[in-house]
Design brief:
The protein has about 500 residues and is an alpha+beta fold. A six-stranded mixed sheet has the order 5-4-8-7-6-9, with helices on both faces. It has a three-stranded mixed sheet with strand order 1-3-2, with helices on one face. The longest helix has 21 residues.
Length: about 500
């Protein structure tokens, strides 16, 4: 595998540092022997500088190794796991700086760690290879961590949206129409918008839109989009342009993921779109009214969708921005489930604030609990489709987890998708029922809200009498058998 020049410098620095320490030399002592300044040597060890040939010759002589050994990418046995990490280009692919980590500092920490940690790193690399962990999954997990670090609220984007609104919509009341946004794309950014651009592209039928870059970018639309989907598509495209986001994906759904920066920019453009369609001041007042009702009022929530002409997912995303920031409800999660039939349900998007809440995604081939509101609403949506009803469906539930004290208030929204564009999806927000949440959500104990005992997956669930069970409790039973064996062994060894 090709290795980046940056990682070549990091490997060289690691080797110099290891050899210097093995000889018991300080920077000052090595500086005296080589004639290279201590600060320059420090930069080399940090991977920031790569010396010229004559200086490498001087270093190799002082450190007691050959020129070829010093410049080789081969590391000692102790540092070999770090070499594997670098040769996999991990530090190039992962934006460590976003999390306040400098690659040289991390390498320095790991190079001083016990040999057991090296073995642990090698094990992680081997697991990732054996289980085919995809880099795009890693990027999306990192994005979720980045969102969680900031409580999913980004003031700089909010300010950019407000400036954009003042420039183009001053004195104009919301909801904005997709035609208004389309006009800005054309006049300000010279777009050519093709409303039926994807109509005859059979391979691209599942996409909502695609952008062809250039001096005059082309936005190809799926003609089956609803008004709210068109609004989001236009607003997101404006986000890319207004925030000057590059690199970026050019399709509405991921076909390939090339870098974390691309994933992050896609998220920023989506954030811009939701914030533009649902202005902070006005949506906060609407949410405050909704949350202060003594009884859960689905009509109020559905009216918000109607007022802003937005999709259910746009509203749920905006709630994850504002509930932590404005209402102090920080322990929450967002889920999006998709299905093409009544048997298979796939978790296609998730976000957790203030810790990993139940439920959450699993890489295992297991069946998610059919009692979740997110899945129940998709089942009910099938009946609604048969009646040719395309209205948005809303469901609320209090979920109590087996063998856990955690209880969540779950609000789910779903709308039948056009059969030509993807699968049916539900979006849900779950709020941990705690004192902070109870103070703000007055309907949290509304007796009309159904309470369900739920679990993660059918395979891990001990509720044998569950009518909704979709698979045997194989994982749970195996764990019980293992525990029984451990108890038996412990009993015999105590005799």
């Amino acid at each position: 595998m090709a290795i980046s020049q940056e990682n070549v410098k990091l490997i060289f620095g690691l080797k110099v540092r290891q050899l210097r320490l093995e000889k018991g030399l300080s920077f000052a002592e090595l500086s005296k022997q080589t004639g290279l300044s201590a600060s320059y040597l420090n930069e080399i060890e940090k991977g920031k500088k790569y010396p010229k040939i004559e200086k490498i010759n001087i270093l190799s002589e002082a450190l007691g190794v050959s020129f070829d050994d010093l410049v080789s990418l081969q590391l000692s046995k102790k540092l070999a796991p770090l070499g594997e990490l670098l040769q996999s280009n991990l530090f190039k692919e992962l934006p460590l700086e976003l999390f306040g980590i400098e690659p040289p500092h991390l390498l320095d920490l790991l190079s001083n760690a016990p040999a057991k940690l090296g073995a642990f790193i090698s094990t992680l690399i081997e697991i990732s290879r054996n289980y085919g962990l995809r880099v795009e999954s890693l990027y999306l997990n990192m994005l979720r961590s980045f969102q969680e670090m900031h409580d999913n609220y980004f003031e700089s984007i909010e300010e950019d949206v407000e400036a954009f609104r003042n420039q183009f919509f001053k004195g104009i009341s919301y909801p904005y129409s997709f035609q208004q946004l389309e006009e800005i794309l054309k006049s300000e950014y010279h777009y050519q918008v093709l409303p039926k651009g994807l109509e005859y592209q059979q391979e691209l039928k599942p996409l909502r839109s695609m952008t062809i870059p250039g001096e005059k970018p082309q936005l190809l639309m799926n003609p089956k989009l609803t008004e709210s989907q068109k609004l989001f598509t236009m607003a997101k495209e404006l986000g890319y342009q207004n925030l000057k986001l590059s690199p970026r994906p050019f399709t509405s759904s991921w076909i390939s993921v090339n870098s974390f920066e691309e994933v992050l920019n896609n998220y920023k453009a989506s954030y811009f779109a939701c914030a533009l369609a649902l202005p902070e001041k006005s949506i906060v007042e609407d949410l405050r009214k909704f949350l202060s009702e003594p009884h859960f009022n689905a009509d109020l929530l559905l009216n918000i969708l109607e007022t802003y002409q937005c999709t259910p997912e746009m509203l749920m995303h905006r709630m994850t921005n504002l509930l932590p920031k404005v209402f102090g409800i920080k322990e929450l999660f967002f889920l999006r489930f998709s299905t093409s039939n009544e048997e298979n349900f796939k978790l296609t998007k998730e976000m957790h604030l203030s810790g990993l809440h139940n439920p959450h995604g699993t890489a295992l081939d297991q069946h998610y609990c059919r009692r979740w509101a997110s899945i129940e609403i998709l089942k009910e949506l099938r009946n609604q489709e048969r009646e040719e009803d395309d209205s948005v469906k809303c469901k609320v539930q209090r979920s109590q987890y087996v063998d856990s004290e955690n209880e969540y208030l779950i609000i789910s929204l779903a709308k039948p998708s056009n059969k030509n564009i993807g699968q049916n999806s539900s979006v849900s927000i779950g709020l941990l029922i705690n004192p902070a949440m109870k103070r703000k959500v007055k309907f949290h104990n509304d007796p009309v809200i159904p309470i369900r005992i739920v679990n993660e997956t059918c395979e891990t669930c001990p509720l044998y009498d569950c009518q909704e069970r979709a698979a045997p409790a194989q994982v749970y039973e195996e764990a019980q058998q293992l525990n029984a064996m451990k108890k038996a062994v412990a009993l015999l060894t105590r005799q």
